[in-house]
Write a structure and sequence with these properties.
With about 300 residues, the chain is α/β, with parallel strands linked by helices. Helices cover about 40% and strands about 20% of the residues. The strands form four sheets. Strands 2-1-3-4-5 form a five-stranded parallel beta sheet, with helices on both faces. Strands 7-10-13-6-14 form a five-stranded parallel beta sheet. Helix 2 packs parallel to helix 3 and helix 6 packs across helix 7. It is globular and about 65 Å long. The chain starts with a strand and ends with a strand.
């Protein structure tokens, strides 16, 4: 992490000192800004790879500062620090271009890992110049202002680790949008795995996603590698997520929360590093109200929302 330069935007003196000391000890170049004005002045003067941004500042709203930082330095990554009660604001920050959010009090090792991933994403985006591209992807035909706004959202969705929910009627191009997000992401050279949730029988769902061990059930004659394992380091596109059986929703939630799963019939927990994009042609909020879709899973997949209008 010795090449990383970071701006720490935190008004609490004790917290800023702890963060500064920790990351200086990691060999990083750090600077502390105690308010929005200091942060903007620092960003104007020097180019930082990463900004750690506390959403609660004495002189301006954290979301407003985030937008200004991205205007000044569009290539650098912003990681938001937030209290548990400010999760809604953190989600808004992701939509405004933040790379990720970390809740306080911070786990410094987890934060270090997120910073490293953000730095790698930063390098990738610089090489690919995703934010500078104004050309329309060759698979898209779009003239309306609504579709052009969607195309502007795609690079932001590609640059963040957060989940993306693509909604819209059947045939509007949800998978095309998902593929473009993957193409522009740092994972573009890794697998893009499409899983149609409406096409998998409930009894086979867990085995298809997570795999199984030989002998796990009657027809398990050999070990099977699941689609999540195949997609490791890449992107999983869960199409028609609203059709996922309720019994599988809690298991997907665990993958999103802890980045781990088990093959059917195994006691070994496997770590996974995948970006998850979901899509639906139904109103999931209505399904949540009806009790057929888990509310906690909905909030996990609904960090970034891209709605595609009818053709």
């Amino acid at each position: 992490m010795s090449q990383i330069s970071m701006l720490i935007i935190e008004d609490d003196k004790a917290t800023s000192q702890i963060l500064n000391a920790h990351f200086e000890s990691k060999g990083m170049l750090t600077k502390v800004a105690r308010n929005g004005g200091e942060a903007l002045a620092a960003a104007e003067k020097d180019q930082y790879d990463i900004s750690l941004l506390d959403l609660v500042l004495p002189d301006m709203k954290g979301l407003d500062l985030l937008k200004k930082l991205k205007e000044i330095r569009p290539f650098h990554q912003v990681i938001v620090l937030t209290g548990v009660s400010k999760i809604d604001s953190a989600v808004q920050a992701i939509k405004a271009g933040a790379y990720d959010y970390i809740t306080k009090p911070c786990d410094l090792e987890k934060l270090s890992h997120v910073i490293q991933k953000a730095y790698e994403a930063n390098l990738y985006i610089r090489r690919k110049k995703a934010f500078e591209s104004t050309s329309m992807p060759e698979d898209f035909i779009a003239e309306s202002s609504r579709m052009k706004k969607i195309l502007q959202l795609i690079p932001n969705a590609a640059a963040t680790v957060s989940t993306v929910l693509i909604s819209g009627e059947s045939g509007t191009g949800k998978e095309l949008v998902a593929r473009e997000i993957h193409r522009l992401s740092e994972r573009s050279q890794e697998p893009f795995v499409v899983i149609n949730c409406s096409a998998i029988p409930e009894s086979l769902f867990e085995s298809e996603l997570f795999g199984h061990e030989k002998g796990a059930f009657t027809s398990a004659l050999e070990r099977k590698i699941g689609l999540f394992e195949i997609a490791n380091k890449g992107t999983v596109f869960l199409d028609e997520i609203s059709e996922m059986p309720h019994s599988m929703q809690v298991k997907l939630l665990r993958v999103l929360q802890f980045k781990e799963f088990r093959r059917v019939g195994s006691n070994t927990t496997m770590k996974t590093d995948i970006k998850i994009i979901t899509a639906t042609n139904k109103d999931i909020q209505k399904l949540v109200q009806e009790g057929s879709f888990r509310e906690d899973l909905f909030y996990r997949i609904h960090v970034l929302d891209i709605h595609i209008p009818p053709l």
